[in-house]
Design goal:
single chain, alpha+beta, 2 domains, two-stranded antiparallel sheet, 10 helices, 29% helix
């Protein structure tokens, strides 16, 4: 009996608490809202994304913040935000790690992939917010350096974690992060996401994402930046209203989704898909 209780205790120690249903959403409900578009394959440089900032000024940059928040056994925090001890679970390969130096902080949607699917239009400030996104708990993840480098900049049509039990969560998280940042998906990626989410059930539930605050880089001929539709969540303002979607697109705005963006009502939804001013 004692041995059985010990086994049960060990199992419970490694159970990840599940979020309340009211604070989660089925990733499958977000997938149809992702715009399908061909990727932009030119112009990317990692230097376009400022990495590992200390937004709250507490002495720990975004990389260290992820390590601290994801530790299964919390490390001791030393001067200069140095970490001593600690234990982490690398979800991609189902390994427990006690050396934080052997972990990479993976951008769930890689920087190159983000660039190809919309970040090429963003301002430098938005790219920095994306690269250091601590506001949504799934955007960044601590994993072994070897699996992070195996993944590289591949999307789920090209790479999935070796730990198959985690794949439903992986695909669901990919969808949620892309939705949060209004990033597009390509046709092969769309198929992989649909197949990957099928039959996942509760494993496809993710914390409800909110829209990231996005500003677009000003066109060369323009004198100021423009704001993406969901900047209304942070600025309280709507995008400029134009007579036609073509004018909104030319200004770097759109798409607008029914039930999410008030600007949707301004334009004609010719194909009735719940999205207007699509690229």
């Amino acid at each position: 009996m004692r041995r059985s209780l010990i086994v049960v205790g060990l199992l419970l120690a490694f159970v990840v608490p599940t979020a309340d249903a009211a604070s989660t959403v089925q990733a499958g409900s977000l997938l149809p809202q992702l715009k399908v578009s061909a990727p932009k394959l030119t112009g990317y440089s990692r230097d376009l994304f400022r990495l590992w900032t200390d937004a709250d000024g507490n002495g720990c940059d975004a990389r260290k913040e992820v390590l601290i928040s994801e530790a299964r056994v919390k490390p001791t925090l030393l001067a200069g935000c140095r970490l001593s001890g600690g234990r982490w679970w690398s979800a991609y390969d189902n390994l427990y790690i006690t050396d934080s130096g052997s972990l990479d902080i993976d951008h769930f949607v890689p920087l190159s992939e983000a660039w190809q699917s919309g970040a090429w239009r963003w301002s430098a400030a938005t790219r920095e917010r994306f690269a250091n996104d601590l506001d949504y708990p799934l955007s960044l993840i601590a994993v072994t350096a070897s699996t992070n480098r195996q993944k590289s900049d591949q999307d789920p049509a090209e790479w999935l974690p070796a730990f198959s039990t985690y794949r439903c969560t992986y695909v669901a998280t990919w969808i949620a992060v892309k939705w949060r940042w209004r990033l597009t998906i390509d046709p092969a990626e769309q198929v992989a996401l649909r197949l990957g989410i099928t039959g996942c059930g509760a494993a496809a539930r993710v914390p409800k994402p909110t829209r990231g605050a996005i500003t677009t880089a000003a066109p060369a001929a323009a004198g100021s930046t423009t704001t993406e539709p969901n900047s209304t969540a942070t600025s309280g303002k709507l995008d400029p209203r134009f007579p036609y979607c073509t004018d909104a697109l030319a200004a770097g705005l759109g798409p607008y989704t029914k039930g999410i963006d008030p600007e949707y009502a301004w334009y004609r939804d010719g194909d009735g898909d719940g999205v207007v001013c699509e690229r």
